[in-house]
Amino acid sequence: MASQGTSEIDSDKPNETFNEAWERFKGLLRQCPHHGFFELHQLDTFYNALNPNDQDALDSAAGGNFLDKIPRECLSIIESKSKVRYLRSRVTDVRANTNAPPPSSSPSNSFKLQQIAASLEDKLDIRMNGFEKSLNDMKAFITPTAPIKAVEE
Question: What InterPro entries does the record point to (predicted)?
């Protein structure tokens, strides 16, 4: 079962979106709950099974080599990216169903704009997550453990 699962994880599905790949990967792990793979190995396997464009997108979102991050950060990046891609694909589906005109007259320009927007959204998500973490760290550092007495003049 383990070798079958590994080959299933490593197999590339044509036209599979990032979100679909992530959901399929999580489903395979759920099918074999006692797989014994550490998070780092799981992330390495998922990353290396992605197409080069998705690997580059993860590296970009990580601000460098994706696999140099700690597993918790990697999972946060993947989940964030998965949500963004899923929501973007839903918007595209709605546009296609309503026969709305594309935002640009040239399909190649439209694709480039979508890539730029996706990259910016991913970077914004990562920065916002980092900001939120920093803010929480500061709150934990600043929050007094004992009541503060008023200063008397």
Answer: Retrotrans_gag_dom
CB-based contacts of 104, cutoff 8 Å, min separation 6: 110, 113
pTM of the predicted protein model? 0.51
Give the number of domains in the chain.
1
Hey, CA dihedral for 114, 115, 118, 123, is it positive or negative? negative
**Residue, of 116 and 129, whose pLDDT is higher:** 116
Question: What range does the domain containing 73 cover?
Answer: 2-131
CA neighbor of 9 nearest in space, from 57, 50, 59, 38: 50
Residue 151 lies in a domain: no
- Which of left, alpha, beta for 99 (phi over 0: left; psi -120 to 50: alpha)? left
Within the chain, strands assigned E span none
